[in-house]
Amino acid sequence: ALPDGSIVFNFEGLGSAKLDRCGAIQWTLARRSHHSIEPSQDGGFWIPDGTLVKTGSPFRALTPPFFHEKIMKVSADGKVLREISVLDILFKNHMEAHIFSNGMHGIKLASNDLTHLNDIEELDSGMASAFPQFSAGDLLLSLRNLNMVMVVDPRTEKVKWHQVGPWIKQHDPDFLANGKIAVLANNDDGTPTGTILGGSKIVETNPVTGENAVRYGDGPNQNWYSFRRGKVQYLPNGNVLIADSESGRVVEADAAGEIVWE
């Protein structure tokens, strides 16, 4: 949702669109865009995109079929300005071992959904001073199927930081003003209630020290479980807003972890 009342959204895997506040179509983008749309400081958007490679793999180590996901930069008027291959980033930064970490037979992959890019967030200039190891314009990525969160320079495609876990099948990493990164740890354990891994949590990680702390999900009356999907937003008053997607509810919790409303 934009300040003028217009909205930009994805039809999952079928394309993106912008409608004005009265519902009139402003633009459409016929791509296989998916998951979260995040704003860029220049007025455009970062949108995950991807295609299913059925034949002619551009990567010698990968045998089709597999999804080749792209980081797509889209202008404010709906034009594709740039595409960056997520797999290119992994191979260029000698991180291809993560692609094959779940086992393989020969060069046939255990799953054709290799990375599952579900979020792209830009570090804006107002927040950059809290992250001296990064630069304004760097991108924070969530690769769900690798349980990985990373920061990459889109200009050079260099990975500046990455961490696998303690989250499992995570969503929506966010830069925080205190120099930490918040992650919605879905913690999908294959059960309907999340009893094995203790349910979902909001985890804050320090990219300098690697230390992790649970912001919400470990305290009394904080049990929740969204094995997929979900969003988290830190509010100006210090509270945190959580979309518990699989339960169909929204929760606002204060700094002490008490629910303000749901």
State the main characteristics.
mainly beta, 21 strands, globular, 262 residues, 1 helix
What do you see in this structure?
- With 262 residues, the protein is mainly beta.
- Helices cover 3% and strands 40% of the residues.
- The protein contains one helix and 21 strands.
- Strand 20 (249-253) and strand 21 (259-261) form a beta hairpin.
Shape: globular
SS element count, helices: 1
Outline the biggest β-sheet.
4 strands, antiparallel
Structural class of the helices, strands and pairings?
mainly beta
Strand order of the largest sheet: 4-5-6-7
Give the total of beta strands. Answer: 21
* Terminus-to-terminus distance: 21 Å
Task: Give the secondary structure arrangement, pairings included.
Elements: E1 7-11, E2 15-19, E3 25-29, E4 38-39, E5 45-53, E6 66-74, E7 80-85, H1 86-92, E8 104-105, E9 108-109, E10 117-122, E11 139-143, E12 148-153, E13 158-164, E14 171-175, E15 181-185, E16 201-205, E17 212-216, E18 231-234, E19 240-244, E20 249-253, E21 259-261
Antiparallel strand pairs: 1-2, 2-3, 4-5, 5-6, 6-7, 8-9, 10-11, 11-12, 12-13, 14-15, 15-16, 16-17, 18-19, 19-20, 20-21
Task: Give a quick rundown of the structure.
The protein starts with 6 loop residues before the first strand and ends with a strand. The chain is mainly beta and 262 residues long. Strand 12 and strand 13 form a beta hairpin.
